[in-house]
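Morning. Coffee machine broken again, so started the prediction first thing and wrote up yesterday's gels while waiting. Chain of 161 residues, entered below exactly as on the submission form.
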Amino acid sequence: MGNLFDVVFCCVQMLAKNVEPPPAAFNSLIVAAQRAKQPDLVARSFQEMVNAGVTPSRETYETTLSAVSAGGMADAALEVFGRMRRDGFEPRKSTYNSLLEACATAPQPRAEQAFEIYYAMAADGKIAPNKRTFSLLIDAATRASRPDLAFDAFESMRTSG
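Came back before lunch.
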């Protein structure tokens, strides 16, 4: 945890002196906050990075998306995903699975939204779902008390092989 505080302290000092932290400082802060399981800090750091005019890399997008999704921050995950797409990065299987995780772990699980994401992924045709994809769909449906959707996910899993 000491590394996280060191990175935060360094960035705060730079900002206090009106010195814009370099992209590497933002990336280090996001990675450290993710490892410390601090999704709020990841989201704030990402937003500060964007506000500073720094264009995130694919790795920064993926790290941020993974952290906020694991923290159940569905709105933040969708916002990061939208920005990622606008910046020209194509989603990967892990990108979609992170979004599904965000829907499943949100304080109010978003099963319908998870299925919309799944259908968009399937319609694109470039990325095949995997076991984790279907597990996350079933998890989102179960947490949202939607057994009908859980059975739909199970049936989709069976038919997709």
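The first helix runs from residue 2 to 16. Going to sketch it on the whiteboard this afternoon.
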